[in-house]
Amino acid sequence: MITLALSKGRIFEETLPLLAAAGITVTEDPEKSRKLILPTNQPDVRVVLVRATDVPTYVQYGGADMGVAGKDVLLEHGGVGLYQPLDLNIAKCRMSVAVRADFDYAAAVHQGSRLRVATKYTHVARQHFADKGMHVDLIKLYGSMELAPLTGLADAIVDLVSTGKTLKANNLVEVEHIMDISSRLVVNQAALKLKRAQLRPMIDAFASAIQP
Ligand code: PRT
Ligand code: MG
Prior knowledge:
about 210 residues; alpha/beta; D-Maltodextrin-Binding Protein, domain 2; about 30% strand; elongated; binds phosphoribosyl ATP; binds magnesium ion
């Protein structure tokens, strides 16, 4: 049995064409079903639905043989024990620093002010500001980062941006682009050895279907 860990929503949707290239069709709709284990047209392949941030953990400990996770999630997880053979070029976005539209970020940086930064991505944020030689106080949040500058919780946020509509709707502006983000295929290293005959052709099929 091959178990593939996916998160509901954009990662699930955007992984479907790659699965199709490997001849795999998920036979139940996760938005309609309450099942957490979804069967496929291949009796020896199943999909488990987990939170996006839990995908690397499932694969690391062998709860799943493979999974699809955002670079953001992998950088925070650390990638220990994971083989990352492919950038699938899906669920693309960027990680950015954003502030309230009326906040003069450039001046604050120039003056060396100690900024409060709220984010779910503390590892990436710490590295980014350390590289710039900036002193920041990081505040860990688990969601709705956009609210932090609006309520005075923080001066800035580090968050993912795709269309920019969420920032705009909350009167925030992007002031720094930290990195581009896409999702990767992650494989359990032991599974790759033990189930190589099944996994290798799937990985190759995914590779052949990656859109530029
Ligand atoms: O939503 P949930 O709390 O369950 O978990 P999650 O947010 O970790 O999962 P999900 O499915 O939303 O995201 C999975 C992966 O998709 C992330 O790890 C990213 O790699 C990738 N991805 C791509 C995004 C976005 N685009 C994105 N726009 N993840 C989140 N967003 C959010 C962003 O955080 C912000 O709140 O969408 C909002 C901004 O979108 P725009 O279009 O308004 O700019
Ligand atoms: Mg989300």
